[in-house]
Amino acid sequence: MSVPGWLDDTRTSYDTVAVSYADLLRDALAGEPFQRGILALFAELVRAQGAGPVADVGCGPGRITAHLRSVGLDAFGIDLSPAMIDVARRDHPGLRFEVGTMTGLELPDGHLTGLLAWFSLIHVPDDRMPAVLAEFRRVLRPGGVLLLGFHAGDGSELKTQGYGGHPMNVYVHRRPPGRVAAWLDAAGFTVEAELAHRPAPNVAGGFVFAHR
């Protein structure tokens, strides 16, 4: 699915909901043992590659970045929304957060030991996914670890309201893990695992581990 203007719409929408989003999700990870386990596995795989920086791309208010730091990773956050980055810096002083876009990361080739995109690909249209994954591969060093988390399923829907009732204008794209894995194969990654998580009825998450 192609969505003209998706990048600007995503930035504006998350600028609008940044404070409410942070308030609603601040402690959510404490009640998600499966997600914590998946992040722990990511951290173990990164540590096995040696020391080096880890980017949380689409970090939002920085809650996952901070968790990665708490388990020993040299993690920093990047987000499209300046308001989200302001909240991340407020909530997690001393950690590194930058405004940026996954379509053109301002990082050198081979800079990262690990890259996490935690439910931040859900607004990227299908026709832009190959370019985004190519950018992820560019900034990872050989052997670097990639973890993608996303809404699993099929189809897209327009989200016009969320996170405290504020207006939004973003498409949410759901994808089967196998489709995401196939995109990673085509981008030159080696896929190691595809996982499905069903935390509630009619709610499904997908996770794919890969390395460069």
Task: Please describe what this structure looks like.
This protein has helices at 6-25, 33-48, 63-70, 82-91, 129-139, 177-187; strands at 53-57, 74-79, 97-99, 112-118, 140-151, 155-162, 166-174, 190-200, 203-211. It has 212 residues and is an alpha/beta fold. The chain has a single domain (6-211), classed as 3-Layer(aba) Sandwich (Rossmann fold). A 7-stranded mixed sheet has the order 3-2-1-4-5-9-8, sandwiched between helices. A two-stranded antiparallel sheet has the order 6-7. Helix 1 (6-25) packs parallel to helix 4. The protein is globular. The mean pLDDT is 96.
What is the compact description of this entry?
The chain has 212 residues and is α/β, with parallel strands linked by helices. It is built from six helices and nine strands; from the N terminus they run ααβαβαββαβββαββ.
